[in-house]
What we know:
Elements: H1 2-16, H2 22-58
Amino acid sequence: MRLIHFFGDVGREMKAVSWPTRKELRHDTGTVVGMTVFFAAFFAIVDNGLQWLLNLLVSK
Length: 60
């Protein structure tokens, strides 16, 4: 009985959700992909820079 009540509540909550439009979804997805690429490039540059610096310090 509790399970039926739970799924009824879930159905009511899903009807109350405000879903994004196709345009909003495309924009938000583009933002996430763009930020992911940016941070991947940023951390690759920082990682390579630190690796270069450590190699410079250790080789002397």
